[in-house]
Write a structure and sequence with these properties.
- With 67 residues, the protein is mainly α.
- The protein contains one helix and no strands.
Amino acid sequence: MIESISDFLSIAVLVFFLAMGVYFLYYSGLRDTEASMARIEARYYRYYDSADDDANEDKNETYFEES
């Protein structure tokens, strides 16, 4: 029970630090996710740029899918 101004300030400071802690955890998780997605995207585009699907195909030949 809040009986004095010092009790109110203690609870206010506690709520403030809890809110800042939640914000810090959210922000650090967001930054980690962004970094992870950037690594995945870079790996995907690196693979996409190095994949040469047309290297062994002749455009004038009929395409047959091997089974």
